[in-house]
Design goal:
Blueprint: H1 16-25, E1 32-33, E2 40-41, E3 50-54, H2 55-59, H3 67-72, E4 105-109, E5 112-113, E6 133-140, H4 144-147, E7 154-160, E8 166-176, E9 183-194, E10 199-210, E11 213-214, H5 219-222, E12 226-227, E13 234-236, H6 245-251, E14 260-263, E15 269-271, H7 284-287, E16 302-303, E17 309-311, E18 314-328, E19 331-348, E20 352-353, E21 359-361, H8 370-377, E22 386-388, E23 390-391, E24 398-416, E25 424-445, H9 446-454, H10 477-483, E26 484-509, E27 512-530, H11 533-536, E28 538-542, E29 548-552, E30 554-555, E31 563-584, E32 587-601, E33 605-619, E34 622-633, H12 637-641, E35 645-647, H13 682-692, E36 710-714, E37 722-734, E38 745-757, E39 760-761, H14 765-772, E40 793-795, E41 802-808, E42 810-811, E43 814-829, E44 840-856, E45 863-865, E46 869-870, E47 881-891, E48 894-903, E49 906-908, E50 911-916, E51 919-929, E52 934-941, E53 970-978
Parallel strand pairs: 4-7, 36-41, 46-49
Antiparallel strand pairs: 1-2, 3-6, 4-5, 6-7, 8-9, 8-53, 9-10, 10-18, 11-17, 12-16, 13-14, 14-15, 18-19, 19-24, 20-23, 21-22, 24-25, 25-26, 25-30, 26-27, 27-31, 28-29, 31-32, 32-33, 33-34, 34-37, 35-36, 37-38, 38-43, 39-42, 40-41, 43-44, 44-45, 44-47, 47-48, 48-51, 49-50, 51-52, 52-53
Length: about 1000
Amino acid sequence: MFAGAAMVAAASLMAAPAMAQDAQEDDSVDDIVVTGSRIVRQDYVANSPIVTVSQEDFQATGSVNIDTLINDLPQFTPAANASSNNPSAGGQANVQLRGLGVGRTLVLMNGRRVVPSNASSVVDLNILPTALISSIETITGGASSTYGSDAVAGVLNFLLNNDFEGVQLDFQYGESDRNDAGTDSVSLTVGGDVADGRGHAVLSLGYSNRELIFNRDREFSSIGGFSGASPLGSTVFEGTNLPSAAAVTAAITGALPSHTFGFNNNGTLFAYQGARDFISPGGSDYEGFRTPGPLQQTDFIYTTAGLNYMILPQTRYNAFASASYEINPAAEVYTEFLFSQYDTANVLAATPAATGTGFRVPTTNPFISAELRSVLNSRPNPTANFQLNKRFNALGPRQGAESYSVYQITTGIRGDLAGTRDWTYDAYLSYGRVDNVTTQSGNVSRSAVQRLLDAADGGASLCAGGFNPFGESALSAACAAYIGRLSKNTTVTDQRVFEVNLQGGMFDLPAGEVRVALGGSFREQDYRFVADSGLSATALLPTASGALTNQFDNAGFNAGQSLSGSDQVYEGYGEILIPLLADLPFIRSLETNLGYRVSSYDSVGKVDSYKADLNWEIVDGLRVRGGVQRAVRAPSIGELFGPQNVNFPNVGTPVSTAGARQFSGDPCDIRGAYRAPGAAGAASVQTLCIAQGVPTQIIATYTFPNQQTQGLTGGNPNLFEETADSVTGGIVWQSPFSNPWLSNLSGSLDYYKIEIEDVVGTVSVTEQLRRCYNFDGASNPTYSPTNTYCLLFQRDPGTGQLTNTFETNSNLGTLRTSGVDFQIDWRAALADLGAPDWGQLSLNVTGTWLENWERQDLPGAVFTERTGTISNSFGLTLPEWKSLTSVNWNNGAFGVGMRWRYQGSVENFNNRANVIDGIHYFDLNASWNVNDAIALRAGVNNVTDELAPVYSPSVASNTDPSTYDLLGRRYYVGLTARF
C-alpha cells in the first residue's frame, strides 16, 4: 500500500460520505487508498461495499485469535477455526465470504499478498501480528482486476499501524464461567522516528495461549459422534453366505442373519439392531446411545464424541518489524518482516477400522468363541473368512501435533515521479515460507493386524499374548508396538512476489481529474508435502473371496501420498477513474472506475478479468454506487496435482435425533426416509440398491451402521479456471439534518449477486447419494445404476455396505448467491439530546439478508438450494438473516459497550422438518483509561450462557462448531500500558 493507507484505520463505511466532505474541506488530508482500488485519492469513497472494523472491535471479542472477530461479521460464513478438530484444518484459521469457500476469499496485509499455508493457496490468519492491526477492510464481489486470482467472493485486507510511535505493552486473560477454556496473551510494540524524521521503525512481539476443551466438558456435546466401529468389534455377514436363522436365533433371540453382530466381553454375541443381548462394559462411550435425551438411540452405536477435542490448544509467538527511510521525495525505501511460530494439536477417538479399512478373520482363529463358532458353522460355506470391524482403544486416542514456522520478508522502494503531474510509484519484492511438521500417533498397520488374525496361535508367536479381536482387546506392550504406527509429515510452502505499481493524475475534465493506476507483477508458489512412508505404504490384504488386493496399509489418520507442485503467473493491470459530471441538479458528482487485468499462468494459460464501477452522489449526503466485475480463480496446486488419498467423509444418519426418518445416511438403509413404507420411489430405490450390490437376501433388513465411509480424494491436472460475474448496487445516506438526534445518523443498503461458473470442487458423498437415489425427482428419474452420480461410489459386493466414494476435483457446474447487506451508524452527545453532559452514545448495526445460495454439481443439472439451511457439510451454515449490533457509551475515561450477535433460524438440510431456532448472543464490555499511560478493559461474552443447538447429522460436536458458541458464558480482563 501507499504511505497514506494507514489513514483508513479510523474510517468506517457508514461515515464515508462525511469523511469525503471533510477531506474536501481540509487541505492537509493525506492521500488514501481504498481497498478494491489501486488509485490514490483525497477522499474515502468506495464504489464497492466495504465493512471496516478496528483494533477496538477485536478487543471487544475477548479473543486472542483475529478470526473470531471476522467470523462475527454477517458477511462471513465461519470455516476452519479453533473448533475444527474433525474435520480438521491442521489448526489453521481460515475465513470465507458468503459461504463460497476459503479459496475464493483473498487475504491481504497492507494491500499485499500473504504467503499461503496449504496446497489450496489459503492464508492462515494465525500468522498475522494481531497487536499491530489497526483496521480490517472487507469488500464484496470480484476484485480480480485489482488483485488477481482468488478474489472471487471478495477481499479481506488487514491494515497494520506501521506509523506507531512509543512503547505499548498489552496483557489479556480470559476463561469461561466453568473455569476452563483459558486464554492469555501479551504483546510489546515499540516504534518511532529515526534520522530526524526521515525514517520510521516499528517492532511488535506477541505471545498467546489457548487451552484445550474436550467434547465431554459440555453436556450438549458429551454424547454423540456415533460410530458403528466399537472396541468390542463387530461383523456383518456376506449376503451370499449368511448364517442360518436358527443358529442366529439360538444365539440372540429376535436377531436376523443380516444384522450387524458385536462381541461381548464374555464371548457371547449381541445384535446392533435393538441392542439385543448387549452387555455394556460401562462408561459414556458405551452407554451414551441409550442415555435419555434428544440423541437417544434404539440400536447399539458407539459414542466417540466425548473423546475428541472441542477446542484445539494453541501456543503462538508472533513478531513483526517494519522500517522505512526517505532518501529524497523520489525514493523511500522500506522493508517488512513477519514471523510466526505456533503449535496446536487435535485428538480423535481411537482408530476405527471398518468396511474399507476392516479385516478378514479366518475360521482357524483360536479366539473364536463357541457361540460365534456355531453361527459361523451354519453358513453355506462354513470355512469362509468373515469381516471384522474394530476400534483400537488399546492404542489410545489418535493424536495429531502440528508445528508451524512462518516468515515473510518484503522490501521495496516508493516515491514521487519527478516531472509528472503527481505520479507515484511503488515496487517491491516479497518472499514468504511456511514450514509445517505434523506428528501423528494412534495409527494402525492393517497388514500387521491381519498377520495376527491369520496366525494359528492368535499371534502369540509374533508378539506377547497375541491379539484377541473379540471384545475389548488388552494388548501387551509388544503387540501395541507391533501394530501401532507413529507418522511424521512435513510441508513446505513458499511464495515469491515481485510487483510494480504506478498511479497518478492524467488530465482534468470539467467534472474533475482523470486518475490512472498501472502495474505488473510476477508471482510463484511452490508446495511440497512429504508424507510419512507409513501413511503412503500399501499392502496385500484379503477380500471376502480370499483373494489378495493391494490396499493402503494405514488405518487411523487418513492415508496419503506425497505431493509437490508449483505455479507461476505474470500479470499486468490498468485502472482508470473518470469523473463524468459534477455540480449539476441531482448530480453533485458522477464518476466511473474501470479496471482490467490480464494474467498468464503456467497451469491454465491466459485469463483476464475486469470491472466497471459507478459512483453517483445525487446530493450532499446521498450516494448511489455499484458495478459489475468479472473475476477468475486459477486452480490451486492441491486441486491440480493432489494424489489420490484416503478420507472418511460423513454420510449422515437415516434417523433424526427425534427418531424420525430423514433423507440422510445410506439411502438403502431400511430405517431411512428413502425406503419408508409408502414413500414415493421406495420400490425403485430398493431395485437400484440391489443393482448396485446390496444382496437380495438382506435387502429387506439392510442397515448401514456407520456415519462415515471410505473415500478417495485427489487432484486433476486438466482443470481450468473458474470465472465469476458479480453485480453490486447500493445506496449510502448521511443525514443532512441538524437535529442532534439525526445529525450523525448514516446508513447503507447494498445488493450483491455472485455467480461462479466451472466451479472447481468435488461432488460430496452426501450429494452423490442424494442425486443417485433421485432425492430431487430430477437427477436420476429412471433410477439407473449407470447414472453419473451412481458411478461415484461403490458397495461391498458381499455385504452391500458403502465402501469407496470418489471425490476427485473437477470443473463442476455453477455456484451462485445473492443478498442484501445493510449498515446503520448513529452517535450523539447526551448533552445535545437534552440529557446531562454524561458523554456520548453510539450505535452500529451491520447485517445481511441472504436471498439465494445454490449450487449446481454438473452443467445442466438441477440446482441444490441451501438458502436458510444447516447440514453436516463444513462451512455451509447459511441462515437468511445475520447481524452484529454494537451499542457504546463513552464519558471521558470510561466506556461501556454491548454487542448483540444474531444468527437466524435454519432448517436441517437433511431433515427440513427440523428447524433450529435463531440464536441471540449478548456481550458486555467496559474500559477505563486510568491515566494517559494505563488503560483497563474487561468483558463478559455470551452473558445469557447460550449453548450451541443440537441437531443430526451435524458437522461435529452435535452441532456446527464453527458457527455456534461452544463455551458458554466467559470473562476476560486486559491492560494496555503506553509510554
